[in-house]
Amino acid sequence: MKLTLKVWRQKNNKTKGKFETYQVEANEHMSFLEMMDVLNEDLIAKKQEPVSFEHDCREGICGTCNMVINGRPHGPLQGTTVCQLHMRFFKDGDTIVIEPWRAAAFPIVKDLVVDRSSFDRIIQAGGYISVNTGQAQDGNSIPVEKDEASASMDAAACIGCGACVAACPNASAMLFTSAKVAHLFHLPQGKVEAKKRVQAMVNQMDEEGFGMCSNTYACEAECPKEISVDNIALMNREYFSAVIGSEKIV
Ligand code: SF4
Ligand code: FES
Predict the structure, then answer these.
(1) How far is the CA of 119 from the centre of ligand 2 (A)?
(2) Distance CA 144, CA 68 (A)
(3) Which ligand is nearest to the CA of 33?
(4) Which of 107, 115, 160, 174 is the most buried (most CB within 10 A)?
(5) Which of 73, 78, 121, 64 is nearest to 101 (CA)?
(6) What residue owns the CA closest to ligand 1's atom 1?
(7) Residue 182 Cβ contacting ligand 1 at under 6 Å
(8) In whole angstroms, what is the distance from residue 73 CA to residue 223 CA?
(9) Residue to mutate (ligand 2; options 31, 62, 223; most atoms within 8 A of CB)
(10) Which ligand sits nearest to residue 231's alpha carbon?
(11) pLDDT, tens digit (0-9, with 9 covering 90-100), for 59-108
């Protein structure tokens, strides 16, 4: 298949970017990232600068393969990361527009690569438990009710990719932060620090410059792991209950 790619090129966060147009030949069995590899091999052969993009696992696990494809974070397929998207979902002759995540809290590093360390700082603020849970056997001896275990596992599926931020008109990180709050909240080990955690993580999220949630649900629609906005409701409830009922964490 012959494709026209319009790819965002930007040297760094200090310079202006623009779209460059490239022609590439791919086949329908390639993944989207393999098609990008072909583009870069062509560019290198022509002694031109290859397009910078992030990837690691190529298995939908690590959350690094972040691109907006034809206006949609992670492209046109529901519940699918860029690395799991295949070229058979495009047609011969298609023009594909490829951009980075666009959010003030995700500054562009180069081309399609953005700095998502703001997410790391939200996790560092409280996305952990400090109790010693012992070895696996001890951990398993604490009973967890099935519905709670399932809710925790569903929230823990978040891979921290940032598509929720890229999809949101307010560049809100509520879906990501709430998934990280919820997966610990639902477990007995996570209950101990739940109030402190939710305040610290929401405060850090605000400090990083992410916008507020206005219930468009674009985040849930574009999330490759189909994380539910129910987690946002849980986080809001727990945050207000923690702020009203306890010490304020600064
Ligand atoms: S909630 Fe979904 S879109 Fe947001 S970071 Fe997690 S996996 Fe990515
Ligand atoms: S490269 Fe790891 S999720 Fe896509």
Answers:
(1) 16
(2) 38
(3) 2
(4) 174
(5) 73
(6) 176
(7) no
(8) 8
(9) 62
(10) 1
(11) 999 999 999 999 999 999 999 999 999 999 999 999 999 999 999 999 99
Q: Flag whether the pTM goes above 0.70.
A: yes
Ligand with the closest atom to the CA of 55: 2
17 contacts 10 by C-beta, under 8 angstroms: yes
d(CA 229, CA 156): 14
